[in-house]
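Hello,

Our lab assistant flagged a job as stuck in the queue for most of the afternoon. It eventually completed. Since we weren't sure the result was trustworthy after the delay, we are filing this so someone can double-check. Below is the sequence as submitted and the structure that was eventually returned. Let us know if re-running is recommended.
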Amino acid sequence: MKAVIIHAPHDLRVEDRQTPVAGPGQVQVRIRAGGICGSDLHYYQQGGFGTVRIKQPMTLGHEIAGTVSAVGEGVTRVKLGQSVAVNPSLPCNACRFCLAGQQQHCLDMRFYGSAMRFPHIQGGFSETLVCEEIQAVPADMPVERAAFAEPLAVCLHAAHQAGNLAGQRVLITGAGPIGQLLILVARNNGAAEIVATDLTPEPLAMARRLGADHALDMRTNPDALAPYTANKGTFDTVFEASGSGIALAGALTAIRPGGTLIQVGMGPAETPVPLNTIVAKEITYRGTFRFHHEFEQAVALLASGRIDVAPLLTEIIPIDDAIRAFTLASDRSKAMKVQLSF
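-- returned structure --
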């Protein structure tokens, strides 16, 4: 089978690999669609992120969907030929965090396409994948839509961290793919007003299309949030999706006292945090990391059509042209979500 392998920064190859076979309790999936994520781009452009670096060739990809091509002994959840979204997260379900219902913090997590462990956990950008039965979630919808389940699950978990959004005034800083999905989630969860910010006009145009009431260009108008800072701030909830210290500082001036700020984007370790503002405004400042039960919720929302991700799909590119796909996905002025087809 073919697979998309990263060897070093900008050294991406489509190579042959042995086709895996499903064992007891496992499912063999013929991968049909795979979305290129920000972390895939970090591996492609820099060889990793933070302290995580590629130490051996690794198959990229974790936003994947396909059809069941074989099942191992004892599998009852899915049938041959069934469409599935593949959950890339495989916690141990035995450590103290798993037993406490915090599987996203598993001490022995195996997450597809991750160099956090060594040997690395190979990803899903391959023509065939074998996963555990629990990871294959039935998905009665086109595979390109099902492949959005993983990033949507990230946003659903962020929304759970924020609490009830009904009637809330919401600010989303950073209008990349995660920021756009957060707009869809906030709208689905009943937000009364959604404001998005970014530094690039094309993502802001998409934010308006997806339902943001206002989309503010902070590059051309650095004071665009000023009207929202009057009387100690306006927003009930902020999702900071850029990982930028400047965006965080601006958001804290616009959030009301007692509001909640969810840090979704990851930035450099030395990113400054305005502690005095957090203290003086009594802000609840929470991180959010991956997901667990939200993956199946994401599949259900996508299948029902309640969340429509079709506008976000820029182009589907065959696996043999993977370098062009990664180059396009790296250009924020041209692409929102690029998928590989297998």
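-- support follow-up --
The delay was a queue issue, not a problem with the job. The result is valid. The radius of gyration is 20 Å. The chain has ten helices and 20 strands.
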